[in-house]
Amino acid sequence: MENPNSVGPPSALTYLDPHYWDERFSSEEHYEWFKDYSHFQHLIISNIKPSSSVLELGCGNSQLCEELYKDGIVDITCIDLSSVAVEKMQSRLLPKGYKEIKVVQADMLDLPFDSESFDVVIEKGTMDVLFVDAGDPWNPRPETVSKVMATLDGVHRVLKPDGIFISITFGQVFKQNI
């Protein structure tokens, strides 16, 4: 990162570079995209039962999984593409006693879980990175549509019947039949 005090990179395209995330997470302890959990808690909790199994896409260094845990949801799996984020998250959770939370290095474009594994999949700003080189936001490039559809297909596959996908994003509604 050019400026360690800066929240973002010099170009949005940098978000596509996995090395950017490793470097960022190696020096940054915590950052919440789109506000912290307290702003969304009422919406999230109304859709998640304490017995729900939850998959968080792109956990980074967010405290979302910790806040869910404090609200009684303990069957949580977090994934991130960055090995640095995964390692730091694991070492942050263990001393707090959150042993049930699993943190796995994985790509949201190719989820390594069995079909119908989760009641809820949640992402907060993670899918937005797929749109940084989309071109026209109302008519994204075919490559962008393919990545988004791969993610949505994977989410659909790992959700149990009647499962819920919660996406907190700046993006507009993406209409595509799946």
Automatic annotation (TrEMBL):
CDD domains in the record: AdoMet_MTases
GO biological process, one term: methylation
InterPro entries on file: Lys/N-term_MeTrsfase_sf, Methyltranfer_dom
Domain of life where this protein originates: Eukaryota
Source organism of this protein record: Arabidopsis thaliana x Arabidopsis arenosa
Keywords for this protein: Methyltransferase, Transferase
Family designation: Belongs to the methyltransferase superfamily.
Record domain Methyltransferase: where: 49-171
A Pfam entry, by short name: Methyltransf_31
Annotated protein name in UniProt: Methyltransferase domain
Gene Ontology molecular function: methyltransferase activity
